[in-house]
Amino acid sequence: MRRIGLLTAVACLFLACASGNELSGSDKNAGGVGSGTGGAGTGSTASTGSTASTGSTASTGSVSSTGSTSSTGGTTSTGSVSGTGGVTLGDCTDKKTNGTESDVDCGGSCALKCADGKTCNSAADCEFNGCGADKKCSGCVNGVKDGSEGDVDCGGTCPLKCIGEVCSAPADCASRNCDANKCAKSLHPLANIPATCEVCKVGNASDKPICQKFLDCYLTNNCGPSDCGGNDGTCGVNKLGGGSAPQTAANATYDCAAKAM
Questions:
Q1: Where are the extended beta strands (E) located within the chain?
Q2: Which helix (H) or strand (E) holds 74?
């Protein structure tokens, strides 16, 4: 009986070991199937990757399906269709108004800003950052003294002329009178000389007609001592003669009349 029991025990141990080896082998095979499935997951679409979740290794396959999602990132190479954005930039040289342009090949996203007189949607479209109510670019509406302006947004080539503001020439002023770089508020000062101003105060009576000649020249040419009364100016000593005394008297009359305006 002891011998039979011993043999039985040995047989049981043998069977258990064999069975254990089988299990371990099947585990390995299962692992092999798993990794094989994982491999299939890598090669296949994301949905196949998820089928591979049979083996835990197949979750690696599902990770690699993230890689396949990154190939959807390859669809982000539709981002290369953002090269259509590049086409918009290309539009800035096609001699047409298109894309975001406000006028032909200028404004909007174009590097070139629109010159005065061209159509605009906002100040940002314009070279001088001014877009008028008529939707035309103009440096004369940007709140800055620039270009040919005599003062802020007036004078020069601007349709609005300056009144009582800085000027560099009579043409800057509504009154056509620019004296000492300031526009007079109304007509030429010599058109209505106030009674408080002494006309041609000169020491020699012979200088008075010459002084009047200077005043007439200023009035006729719509100018003053600062812009046409220099030695070589239209109403200067070298043009009208008579020496400096008559002109000095004429300038004093002009200045008095201008200050009274």
A1: 178-179, 182-183
A2: helix 58-75
Q: Which residues pair with 103 in a beta bridge?
A: 106
Q: Is the pLDDT of residue 16 over 50?
A: no
Q: Which residues pair with 182 in a beta bridge?
A: 166, 179
Cβ partners under 8 Å of residue 228, min gap 6: 217, 218, 221, 234, 235, 236
Q: Which residues contact 90 (CB under 8 A, 6 or more apart)?
A: none
Give the C-alpha separation, 258 to 188, whole Å: 8
Task: Give the model confidence (pLDDT) of 79-96 as tens digits.
Answer: 333 444 444 455 899 999
Radius of gyration (C-alpha) of the chain in whole angstroms: 48
198: left (phi over 0), alpha (psi -120 to 50) or beta: beta
CA distance 122 to 75: 37
pLDDT of the residue at 227? 83
- Cα 250 from Cα 212, distance rounded (Å): 7
DSSP-derived letter for residue 187 is: S
Report pLDDT for 125.
94
Burial class (CB in 10 A: 0-12, 13-18, 19+), 160: middle
Q: What is the torsional sign of CA 155, 161, 165, 168?
A: positive
**What whole-number distance in Å separates Cα of residue 229 and Cα of residue 146?**
27
Is the pTM of the predicted complex or chain greater than 0.85? Answer: no
| Residue 163 and residue 186 in contact, taking contact as beta carbons nearer than 8 Å | no
